Amino acid sequence: MLTPEQVKAMIEAVAKCEHVEVEGDGHHFFAVIVSSEFEGKARLARHRLIKDGLKEKLESNELHALSISVAATPTEWAQKQS
C-alpha cells in the first residue's frame, strides 16, 4: 500500500514542482500541485501532464486513485495564499 509521501515522490518525478501536498488513505489520494511547468497550460492539460506521467502506476493499479485538487502555477498559488 502506498503512502502519501510515496505518491508525492512520484509526482515530483513527473514534473518540477515548487510545492506538493498529498493526502490519502493508501488507496485514494488527493494532491495539491504547484509547478512552473503548468505555465500557459489549461487546467485539463495540467492534469494530463501529471496523470500521463503516472499512467503506468495507475494502469497497474499500484496507484489506485489520484484526484488533483489544485494544479496551479507558482503565481496562481501565491495569489490564492494572499
UniProtKB/TrEMBL annotation:
Name of one Pfam family that matches: BolA
Gene3D superfamilies for the chain: BolA-like
Highest taxon above the source species: Bacteria
Family classification: Belongs to the BolA/IbaG family.
Protein name: BolA family transcriptional regulator
Organism this protein belongs to: Neisseria iguanae
